[in-house]
């Protein structure tokens, strides 16, 4: 009977906001605005960093990769969530669900490691300014990004191999998208191995980079306090403020969603917290890095101002 269940799962039902039809129109409008900001903002950052030679530095190389990841995160889920706003209990095919879920895992783990790498870059810039370019050579930067993608891919592949095969019930996911924790709650098979790996990987992929960032910024803070001039301190802090803001938003939602214990059944709170990560983080990153960064704003006028004058 369990084997039969595996062959009959052709699609899942996504609850989303189906129980609140009056809220769906407002939700669609907010989501569309958020998606456009994320799509245009992250796309613009990638274009500016590639097009402007002034931004060809390790710091902006990592920002370019981060914006690329955020661009993919938003496009992995945003369009489908917006389309589903017009349907009552929309469905998603089994294999589309798997692709959406594991691509999401790959991207979010990659972003965890990238934020840790960016913290190390700021540490090298502030604490070892005279040796910064020797430390953060292009070969080393590319190797760090490759390692983060490799570790993320390994974690995702293990999750795929531990994927449950037997499902029971009505195959209803109480979520806006296919999400790993909600997916595992539908299975009838033994999920102890999968849940154990998810807990271990949460510690390694989320908490370890987070602890590294905290330790790195403690050392940065101590170095900043040793700077004698107020102007020097402000300049050092300004190079870290954008990254600190992004880290606070990103890790705040991720830790609540994936590290803190949750009940067996999916709740509306889980959906909202997960949505905050999937929606707010890709939108806020370009706003934080463009509105508070004179280099990026200068690159915008150099690239597009030249095009307009031509």
Keyword list:
single chain, 310 residues, mainly alpha, 3-stranded mixed sheet, 11 helices, 3 strands, 3% strand, disordered N terminus, Olfact_rcpt, olfactory receptor activity, GPCR_Rhodpsn_7TM
What does this entry look like structurally?
InterPro entries: GPCR_Rhodpsn (IPR000276), GPCR_Rhodpsn_7TM (IPR017452), Olfact_rcpt (IPR000725). It is found in: Cell membrane. Residues 41-289 form the G-protein coupled receptors family 1 profile domain. Keywords: Cell membrane, G-protein coupled receptor, Membrane, Olfaction, Receptor, Sensory transduction, Transducer, Transmembrane, Transmembrane helix. Its main location: membrane. The chain has 310 residues and is mainly alpha-helical. It is 76% helix and 3% strand. The protein contains eleven helices and three strands. A three-stranded mixed β-sheet has the order 2-1-3.
Q: Brief overview, please?
A:
It is built from 11 helices and 3 strands; from the N terminus they run αβααβαααβααααα.
């Amino acid at each position: 009977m369990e084997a039969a269940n595996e062959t009959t799962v052709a699609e899942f039902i996504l609850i989303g906001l189906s129980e609140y039809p009056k809220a769906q129109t407002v939700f669609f409008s907010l989501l569309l605005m958020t998606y456009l900001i994320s799509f245009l903002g992250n796309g613009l950052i990638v274009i500016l960093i590639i097009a402007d030679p002034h931004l060809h530095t390790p710091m902006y190389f990592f920002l370019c990769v981060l914006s690329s990841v955020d661009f993919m995160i938003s496009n992995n889920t945003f369009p489908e969530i917006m389309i589903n706003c017009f349907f009552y209990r929309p469905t998603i095919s089994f294999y589309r669900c798997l692709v959406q879920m594991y691509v999401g895992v790959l991207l979010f783990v990659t972003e965890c490691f990238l934020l840790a790498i960016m913290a190390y870059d700021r540490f090298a810039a502030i604490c070892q300014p005279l040796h910064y370019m020797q430390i953060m050579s292009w070969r080393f930067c590319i190797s760090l990004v490759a390692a983060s993608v490799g570790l993320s891919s390994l974690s995702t592949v293990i999750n795929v191999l531990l994927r449950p095969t037997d499902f029971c019930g009505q195959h209803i996911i109480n979520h806006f998208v296919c999400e790993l924790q909600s997916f595992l709650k539908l299975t009838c098979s033994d999920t102890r191995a999968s849940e154990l790996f998810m807990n271990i990987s949460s510690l390694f992929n989320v908490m370890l980079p987070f602890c590294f960032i905290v330790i790195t910024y403690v050392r940065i803070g101590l170095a900043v306090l040793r700077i004698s001039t107020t102007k020097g301190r402000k300049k050092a802090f300004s190079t870290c403020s954008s990254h600190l803001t992004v880290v606070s938003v990103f890790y705040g939602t991720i830790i609540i969603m994936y590290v803190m214990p949750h009940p067996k059944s999916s709740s509306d709170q889980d959906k909202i917290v997960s949505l905050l990560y999937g929606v707010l983080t890709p939108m806020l990153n370009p706003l934080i890095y463009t509105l508070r960064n004179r280099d990026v704003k200068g690159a915008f006028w150099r690239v597009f101002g030249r095009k307009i004058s031509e």
